[in-house]
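Each record in this resource describes a single protein on a pair of labelled lines. An example record follows, reproduced without changes.
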Amino acid sequence: MSVIVALALALAAPVRDAAAQAPASAPVSAPVSALASAPDSRMYAITAGPLDSALIRFAQLSGIDIAYDAAMLGRLQSPGLRGRFTIPDGLRELLADSGLEAVALPDGGYRVRKREGSLAGKAEAVQTLPTVTVSGSMLPGDPATVSGGQLARVTRLGLLGNTDVMDAPVSTVGYTAQAIQDQQARTVGDMIESDASVRSVSKPGGILDAYTIRGFPFSNGNFGEIAFDGMYGVASNYRVSTGYVERIELIKGPAAVLTGMAPGGSVGGGINIVPKRATGMDATQIGAGYASAAQIGGSVDLSRRFGPKREFGVRFNGGYRSGDTGLDQQSRRAGVGALALDYQDSRLRATLDAIVQRESIAAPSRLLHIVPGIGVPDAPDGRRNISQSWESSGISDQSALLRAAYQFSEQLEGFVHAGGGRTRVARLFAIAPTIVNEQGDVAVFDTNYRFNVARASAETGLRGTFDTGPVRHRIGLAFSGYRDQLERGLVNSSVTSLTNIYAPVTLPPQSIAAPDDVPKISQTTLSGMALVDTLTAWDSRLQLTLGLRYQRIRSDNFGPDGATTARYGQGAVTPMLGVVVHPHDNIALYANRIEGLSKGDTAPTSATNAGEVFAPYRAIQYELGAKAELGRLIATASVFQIKKPGGEMSGGVFAVGGEQRNRGIELGFYGAPLQGIRVNASAMWLDATITRSSVSQGKVPIGAPSLQGNFGVEWDTTWLPGLTLTGAMAYTGGQYVDAANTQRIPAWTRFDLGLRYRAELGQHTATFRISVRNVLNRRGWAAVDAYGGLAPADPRTVLASVAVDL
């Protein structure tokens, strides 16, 4: 009976120890996150010895899945492996003279089987062992990660599945659970802007996380743009906690073919979170944390496996924090609970995730808008908060996702995914506080809001491999559907008040009744199908990806009485072409032409063609790039151009007459150039221009700086083992606040410092972390969103935490 060895991040020694002590009864299986086989070669140093141990070590180092029958291996020996090998060549060496061979599976893993006519495994009887399951986060220094375990080599590229960074025909970055913990990132927004192509355009004390990617807006608002395990509609709206996240993946550029249209139509890039799963060894971690001014919290992480073969896994992550933040008058309570169940055998893999997330903020901060025709005032002290203590925001999220994959054969796998979520929001605050003069006076009026958002999504399809002569095909076929419904009710205040960004005024509480009804106002359905084929030749040195997705968009808007006020229904076909060439073992050159998709506009009632529905907007990207492995360092470079059309009013007629073009150059350096030193550095130069418009042609889009840069470094001290010093810098260039380019904010730079110390406390390990964000307490406008909303820089913030592995 065959088994799955999936060794994502495991220690080989504990696996052998557990196997040696187990009673005889069942096959050995060690599942872990799959990693598509990489054509690049790597250094291996695996000693000669038992073949099963050698395969376990090889799977651990290369990050792939290997399936084999434990009884078939018996007491076979391996000559070991020393030197630089590709994955196929390494497996051939390990299996030399064994009578066995390794064949590739559709998901990128391998299965070990007897060669035809071989007598392998018949020489001696062997003891059959129970299942040993090994999985979890990559270990520091593991070749399947970069930068000491903080950046992953693998990203889930939708229909392409898990793909090594050197094989991806697009630009990607993946942050591991270790990086999230080390940076004390409480939300996805805290982590994702570590890449220079991304900038947060919101505040942690605000109501949501929003970003720009390659100069285009990405909002996790009413219809969350963040995918959960590859599926839209499951991740929490507005803000995503990181306590249950194994990996945060950033795909730069549009990716409609691979992942489908994002619900909000983002085209600059995509974000996917991979949840934590039960590890092979039972584990328990508890933690405590502090954030200035008085935020205190705790967390727990439990991992267990059950069953005679340990085929059932349970992972629970919970966290809670509460207290005053670093902003005046503001306090925040946030809690999250996530349960991840999984089952794995030789053919079936199934997972179930259930998440509950709640957040309550008193005096939530809001982005500041500004009237035209005045200069932008200097930014206030980051601690100043114009929101009132009686204003509030409350969000409650519940979501679930079921995924299953079945291996019909070595060449064919079927999958089905289904899930969704519901978000309830209650808010009482100023909708769009507006700066009215250069002295910093702000006009505010409050609204009592209620939102209900329901989301559901499903996907089914096949993945397979086959050969046509010397060319191998990896095929993905998927049918998908997504649906969301928004319910909204609101009551506006009749009072407009004045406050000031430098000296906020305490305003009397307003009695604004909650809305009597929360009617349905919109419903959107996305459906479609996609086909992707990756062709590989010349020992995988040439890879060509061809893809096509048909997407249909239907959207209905409703009036207070439930009657349909507007209806939208359009479809579009989006293609993809991607090429990866490996001229050398450690070099990859890639190019792509890929499209993004967003809902077309409906002409407003003020237009003479009111109600006219326009086809979905296609954003087209061209990109050229190079990636190189230089020892323990990965360097990347790319040039890209993205064009996105848009609608505008001209002469009383609404038409698709606008276009934004973003051209850019990106550089990245990740890894350990010297022993004990790790770097994470990136930069993006951006030339963003409105190339077509009747009113703003030739202008720079709002919130699109010409230069963004990040540099992070870690140093493991030699004078105190276990102590690591950290530092980071983030630079954001000047940005225009208005479409006419008459209002502008200057560049801003933030510096962070920190340390962590890993200590052995008896039989347990504790890691202490302290970091200071904006250590110089510099004032400034940190960002501008696509609608001209100004985000003041956060004040100096101290974060401290301790995590103990029990």
